[in-house]
Predict the 3D structure of the following.
Amino acid sequence: MNSIITIKAFSDNLIYLYCYNQNDAIAIDPGESSPVLKTLEKYELSLTAILATHHHSDHVGGAVELKKKTGCKIIGGDNKRIAGIDCVVESEQILTFGNINIEVISTPGHTSTSVCYYIPRNNENETGILFTGDTLFVAGCGRLFECDAQTMRDSLRKLAALPDNTNLYCGHEYTLENYEFALKIEPDNSLILQHIAEITKKIQKGEPTVPSTIAVEKAINPFLRTDTDRIKTALNMPHADAAEVFEELRRRKDIY
Ligand SMILES: [Fe+2]
């Protein structure tokens, strides 16, 4: 069984090591190198590749140093803004590592070249895995720095179309803040209250709040539900279309 190690970095970044074969690992969004190097040493793992979801330094700041120290390849969706990049990916490209296939999903919105990485399940006993960077967060989504709301919404819809039991690993520990915003939008949503209680326990124990699942996100994440009457009513936009509702929701989150 392949495993995922979550590494905390800076104040709220989450770096992941996806372990495969016996002792190989892929780092997702290593904003800094030292905690990754320590973890590789601790678990006796060899780093074969870095997958960057986008070019922001808190996601790729450690990549060049890791490449220097381990000889790994740097892979991402932006050929100009990711230093040391070896392989520029395109949407729907399949990356193969041993017997692991990783699918690239182009998800512009947070940046114009943001991508997510999806590892489909091999059989019914496994869950799929999705690394979303700053595109889809637990109970939220990334800020729109380089694209409009419609573009981000289209990207999120691609992710929402993945199987329900896909585990979602995002780039920041923003979960509690996102749930609190979601509750402000829908104060009577008991599912959100239930999740806040659960994740508060995890945070108190020092555990990360990832993974979430696509099923949970479709049920509670307001940014995936801007086509529903509940969210439209909550925003007092009963006749607006989903993209307009999304734009307004994102605007409110920006100033929350
Ligand atoms: Fe970012």
Remarks:
- The radius of gyration is 18 Å.
